[in-house]
Amino acid sequence: MQNEQASRTALLIAASLVLLHHDPKCSGLVSKTSAASCAHMLETYSLQTRLFLKIIRQGWFRPISKLIERMTIPGILLHYALRKKCIASLARSALGNGTTQVVIIGGGFDPLSFELHENFGEVRFWEIDHPATQRHKVRAFPKIGAERLHFIAVDLNATALNGEALIKSGFDPAQRTFWIAEGLLMYLPADIVSSLMRTLKSLSASGSQFAFTFMEKQNDGRIRFHSQSKLVDCWLVGRDEPFVWGTTRDELVDLVRPWSMIRFFDHDNLRDLGPGLADEPIAQGEVICLAEI
Ligand SMILES: C[S@@+](CC[C@H](N)C(=O)[O-])C[C@H]1O[C@@H](n2cnc3c(N)ncnc32)[C@H](O)[C@@H]1O
């Protein structure tokens, strides 16, 4: 990631959720509050993103966005929305079963912690992200409850995550935690991913869960969405956000140890989360994994 600029992919995801919310066919997949938070993020980030927001809210832009999607990664917008829906429902289910802490790593501009914060009054939340991304989120939402929602800025490529900053802000390793790393691990080298797994384990009470996504390595070893065009490869490299880590489901079982795997959710499982999606393309290649300690 470029050190001064927020993650471009995080901005793109925020824009995708606004777009989907305005698409009559898919609007039910993105809540009004979620779309409003993403829109606010784009409104406050820069002049360009404010202008972009105006454009994506126009009906005439919908066919253009569909064309761009077809030329880049077909089905990526639905993938983002369904990936979020799946992880949010796993988090809600853990919180309904006695989990009292949620830590989101690489949260980008996702409003999930704000929504859960509203709905679960006894739960405490942390967001850990690259400083270049996180400062924009904190600036855009200065009033978000400091007592139960904490922000910790770390460049995970430069500094290993240790529990100190979490514990200083009230995190209790003896309580059950739901950890999330959505759309993050593909940007970190394998050794950092392994060390993160061990660190999170060391901070987790029994019954804690970890929901994360990973890129499934292709047969030729490449790490990308199945139908990703060369245009996207170049864009990610140009933005200094290339995918550097991917794995297979079999390799992952060893890599996540001492976490134990509960289940995977791929594009077919995600398709079941929304009505009327049977014939819609959903991008393939990134899989959600739920693991438990
Ligand atoms: C693709 S965005 C995903 C954002 C969010 N999880 C979502 O799904 O909407 C990638 C996120 O990973 C974070 N990230 C990438 N490299 C990082 C690093 N070296 N240290 C900390 N965070 C990093 C970015 O700041 C960004 O928030």
Topology:
Layout lengths: L7 H14 L10 H14 L1 H10 L4 H12 L3 H20 L5 E5 L6 H8 L4 E6 L1 H10 L8 E5 L10 H5 L8 E5 L8 H13 L6 E7 L14 H9 L10 H8 L3 E6 L1 H5 L14 E7 L1
Parallel strand pairs: 1-2, 1-4, 2-3, 4-5
Antiparallel strand pairs: 5-7, 6-7
The structure holds S-adenosylmethionine (SAM).
The site of S-adenosylmethionine has 20 residues, from helix 1.
Cα distance spanning the termini: 31 Å
Strands ordered across the widest β-sheet: 3-2-1-4-5-7-6
What is the approximate shape?
globular
Number of helices: 12
Give the mean pLDDT. Answer: 93
Commentary on this structure:
The chain is of the alpha/beta class. The protein has a single domain, classed as Vaccinia Virus protein VP39 (Rossmann fold, 3-Layer(aba) Sandwich), CATH 3.40.50. The protein has 12 helices and 7 strands. The longest helix is centred in the first third of the chain and has 20 residues. The chain is globular and about 50 Å long. The mean pLDDT is 93. It binds S-adenosylmethionine (SAM).
Overview in brief:
The protein is an alpha/beta fold. It has helices spanning 8-21, 32-45, 47-56, 61-72, 76-95, 112-119, 131-140, 164-168, 190-202, 230-238, 249-256, 267-271, and strands spanning 101-105, 124-129, 149-153, 177-181, 209-215, 260-265, 286-292. The mean pLDDT is 93.
Quickly list its features.
alpha/beta, seven-stranded mixed β-sheet, single chain, Rossmann fold, 12 helices, globular, 44% helix, 14% strand, binds S-adenosylmethionine, 293 residues
